[in-house]
Amino acid sequence: MPSPPLHILVQAVEDYLAEMGITAAALSKNVSAVSDLLLLHVVPNKSYLQADLLRTPALTTMLGVNLTLSISQGTLNVAAPGSTASVLTFDLLGGKAVAQAVDTVLLAAPLLL
Fold it and tell me: In Å, how far from its chain's centre is CA 28?
């Protein structure tokens, strides 16, 4: 499956935040919450490819939140305390990083916007 264009991923995040009632104005007033939201989606120190993730039961994000990985009906799911996302596209390469596209924005229970 081809990688989705970046503007589609950005639009998905904007749509999700709008559904949650979170506006750009609210985000601009709470920079630390935005930073936490981004750090919740980053795993430091290693670039995990699809093959790595399928063998990995858990990861810790830059925010210090533990993510649990599981496979259900052929789909890799990523769970944070309070939300779960499914990986849609694996191995989006960019510079020294690898990204995985998920179907929703993860929100951890302690993360307040």
Answer: 20
Beta strands in 1-113, from DSSP E residues, in sequence order:
58-60, 66-72, 75-80, 83-94, 97-102
On whether the CB atoms of residues 47 and 98 are closer than 8 A, the answer is yes
d(CA 27, CA 16): 13
Tens-place pLDDT, residues 52-88:
999 999 999 999 999 999 999 999 999 999 899 999 9
Please state the domain extents for the chain: 6-102
Select the more confidently predicted residue: 44 or 31: 44
Q: Which residue has 């998905």 as its token pair?
A: 12
pTM of the complete model? 0.75
Query: Both tokens of residue 77?
Result: 């799911």
- Whether the per-residue pLDDT at 111 is higher than 90: the answer is no
Contact indicator for 62, 39 with CB cutoff of 8 Å: yes
Q: How many residues in the chain?
A: 113
